[in-house]
Design a protein that fits this description.
By secondary structure, the chain is α/β, with parallel strands linked by helices. The chain has one domain: 3-Layer(aba) Sandwich (Rossmann fold). Helices cover 32% and strands 14% of the residues. It is built from nine helices and seven strands, in the order E-E-H-E-H-E-H-E-H-H-H-E-H-E-H-H. It has a seven-stranded mixed sheet with strand order 1-3-2-4-5-6-7, sandwiched between helices. Helix 1 links the parallel strand 2 and strand 3. Helix 2 packs across helix 3. The termini are far apart.
């Protein structure tokens, strides 16, 4: 499928929204936002990655154009639906990017596609530890509203600034609860490493992640991981979107078997 085939005709119930449609882009990237967010949260990244990367953002029920649909809390069937959609629109070369809790979805979709022989050129994960050691909150979505919002920043679910905005809580709380219910159902199963290179993006001031948790992504691939340290906290797309985009574009245009350039090696493993 050509890069821009569906960009102008996507339906509100489509699983992905093409935020940038450029026939000259070298690669199409399917992006999975953080908990509670819709495809619009990836708009600044899409603009920063253009024209090299054609970004399609996940469009989950229960938010933005799919606000009237019930949010999904069934992890495995959702991963199947997303993987099918990626396979349909993948084009000649594609990558996956997951941000915060969206990194878990991106990883699971990569796994599902890898098993089916549809192999991504690269998996990008931002602000999340490896899935076998990630501290997933199991009961956050069950808490009463006030306690839920108190706990969100410490769990990486929202910035302290958003959590303090009581006027915004009714807007974001339903999707946030649904997404934390979704990831609460994840139980890691040990599997052979994927044949997909992984780039891990993390903030140098992110207090929610450990070095060991980041290095753990090496267990999920047989072809290498590079860690990219970026100035910022857990919320890299808010604080350093241009630096995130630069790392994504550089790695996307690099041959998967080519080692990082000298200016990238400070954070490579």
């Amino acid at each position: 499928m050509a890069i821009a085939d569906t960009a102008a005709t996507w339906a509100s119930d489509s699983w992905f929204v093409p935020l940038r449609a450029d026939a000259e882009s070298a690669v199409r990237m399917f992006a999975f936002p953080h908990a509670g967010a819709g495809p619009g949260s990836m708009a600044s990244l899409a603009a920063a990655c253009a024209p090299h990367v054609d970004l399609w953002a996940a469009n989950l029920p229960g938010r933005q154009a799919r606000q009237r649909e019930p949010a999904r809390t069934d992890l495995e069937p959702l991963v199947d639906d997303l993987a099918d959609a990626v396979a349909t629109h993948a084009g000649e070369r594609f990558t996956l990017f997951g941000y915060c809790s969206g990194a878990l979805l991106a990883y699971l979709v990569a796994r599902r596609l890898d098993t089916a022989g549809v192999v991504a050129a690269r998996l990008f994960v931002g602000s999340m530890a490896a899935p076998d050691v990630a501290e997933i909150p199991r009961r956050l979505h069950l808490l009463p509203s006030e306690l839920f919002w108190q706990q969100l920043p410490a769990q990486g679910g929202a910035s302290a600034e958003l959590a303090a905005r009581r006027d915004m809580r009714p807007v974001f709380e339903p999707a946030l609860r649904a997404d934390f219910a979704l990831v609460a159902g994840y139980r890691h199963r040990s599997q052979p490493p994927m044949s997909i290179p992984i780039t891990v993006l993390y903030g140098d001031a992110d207090t929610l992640l450990s070095r060991g948790g980041l290095l753990g992504w090496r267990r999920q691939t047989s072809v290498g991981v590079d860690l990219r340290e970026i100035g910022g906290s857990h919320w890299l797309l808010d604080e350093a979107v241009d630096h995130v985009a630069r790392a994504i574009v550089t790695a996307s245009l690099r041959d998967p078997l080519q080692p990082p350039a000298a200016d990238e090696q400070h954070a490579s493993e």
